[in-house]
Specification:
By secondary structure, this protein is an all-alpha fold. It contains 18 helices and no strands.
């Protein structure tokens, strides 16, 4: 008899509400979701590879150029929960279309930027567009696939995340070898137009919440994430006075927000869902996994350039095996994610990721490209094994009617981990003259911690 994912609570799931789509209807709807997802992920991956070139061309230090990534992530993170809540009211399909359109416009703004400030602001607005897409992405998958096959849909989602991250460095390297960095944003335009057309015609209409939009709560949520993120970044860069003031303001906003949200129906910050221990544990595991991944992803281009002395075109090709591993393993795990518990699959995945990071950490500086590539592939395979089961655990722990909040919180765990990882990279680059292998060591520790927490979730959730 097949093992049952016993550590993932299915309480509150309405089978009729999640009957799903079938045949050509499912294929078209899922294609629209995945194309929008690919747009968001592809651009993020390309921007990472271009950081050294952007820093050089705009005369910016590496620690500041990382804000090209951080601005996108912080805006994305700050807006995810309000937009997930708003998406529950206007419809998940419409919210996705708004995000794709905004992403299209801001890609032009990024390409036309003349200095780091302009590029950072354009990337922040692009992050808002990405938040519109990502806040409802998994919620749409939950309506496209029936409950018994949800793991397949989430694994397919993870597969395309891997494809986007894999294509990003490769496309970025090709673009940078023949053109300047603004072209990494110009190439978004045809993909965004295609995604917008498909989303308009193929995405399913979903039930809408009749609860009134919470504008004060939305503004407080954005302020809480943004002030805390900018304040922590200031502290990481040694700007202690402004950093401390902004961090303190962010903490106060969080306190006010949680008091304001207490007892509200469908709160923007889903405190009702976080009170469910399986949901909370799955979010924490996801957060730690993405802290580990971004300590690797953001720092590795600089590591390959400064420590291993690789050029721009080679850097992208050496990072690509990570995403290839994620994509391949996401496809494989999709066949078993509905049958085996996340406490087993996700734990093994993060353990394998940590092992891959350790092997990279131990590499000599004269290592060959092949030696770097296969270790990166191994770490990526582990991450691909970890992600779909853990995402499924988050979604099935939420009751019917809270799909938007669960989808938003899943993305918050991912982006919160990524942003924390990027902030740690910025801090280490500020403090240490050669932090390359320190970042890899931190990634290994975060992955091991996430693996241990995932393994224990069956007992901690009781």
């Amino acid at each position: 008899m097949k093992a049952k994912a016993a550590d993932e609570s299915d309480l509150g799931v309405d089978p009729q509400r999640h009957a799903g789509l079938y045949g050509a209807q499912r294929a078209k709807a899922m294609s629209a979701v995945l194309l929008g997802l690919l747009l968001s992920v592809l651009d993020y991956a390309i921007a990472n590879v271009a950081l050294p070139s952007i820093a050089h061309d705009l005369n910016a230090p590496s620690s500041r150029a990382i804000w090209v990534v951080n601005a996108y992530q912080l805006a994305n993170l700050s807006c995810l929960l309000p937009l997930a809540s708003f998406g529950s009211r206007v419809g998940f399909a419409r919210m996705s279309q708004i995000g794709i359109f905004l992403f299209l416009i801001t890609s032009v703004g990024c390409a036309l930027s003349q200095n780091l400030l302009e590029l950072t602001l354009a990337r922040a607005l692009q992050g808002v567009g990405g938040a519109c897409i990502m806040s409802v992405n998994i919620a749409l998958v939950r309506f496209i696939y029936p409950h018994a096959e949800l793991g397949k849909g989430i694994a397919l989602n993870g597969l395309f995340v891997g494809i986007g991250v894999a294509l990003g460095p490769t496309i970025g390297s090709i673009v940078l070898s023949v053109a300047t960095w603004p072209w990494i944003f110009w190439i978004n335009l045809p993909l965004a137009l295609a995604a917008l057309v498909m989303a308009h015609f193929a995405l399913p209409q979903t039930p809408r919440s009749e609860t009134q939009a919470d504008i004060p709560g939305s503004l407080l949520t954005v302020a809480s994430f943004a002030l805390l993120g900018i304040g922590l970044d200031g502290l990481m860069h040694g700007d202690f006075l402004p950093g401390s003031l902004l961090t303190g303001a962010g903490i106060i906003c969080w306190w006010l927000l949680l008091r304001y949200q207490k007892g509200r129906r469908e709160p923007i910050v889903p405190v009702d869902l976080l009170a469910r221990r399986p949901f909370l544990l799955a979010c924490l595991v996801g957060f730690l996994g993405f802290v580990a991944s971004n300590l690797y992803i953001v720092a590795m281009p600089f590591t390959l350039a400064s420590a291993f002395h690789r050029g721009d075109s080679t850097i992208g090709l050496l990072i690509a095996p990570w995403a290839v591993g994620v994509a391949v393993m996401s496809f494989v795990v999709g066949k078993i994610a509905d049958r085996f518990p996340a406490s087993v699959l996700s734990s093994l995945g993060l353990l394998l990721t940590a092992f891959g990071f350790m092997l990279l950490w131990l590499l000599p500086l004269d290592a060959s490209n092949a030696a770097i590539a296969w270790r990166t592939l191994l770490a990526g395979c582990g991450f691909g094994l970890f992600q779909p089961p853990n995402n499924r655990a988050i979604m099935v722990s939420a009751p019917a009617g809270r799909e938007g909040g669960a989808s938003g919180m899943l993305s918050v765990a991912r982006l919160g981990g990524q942003t924390t990882g990027a902030l740690l990279v910025a801090a280490l680059f500020t403090i240490f003259p050669h932090p390359a292998f320190i970042c890899l060591g931190g990634a290994m520790i975060a992955a091991l911690t996430g693996s241990a927490l995932s393994l224990g979730r069956k007992y901690l959730a009781d």
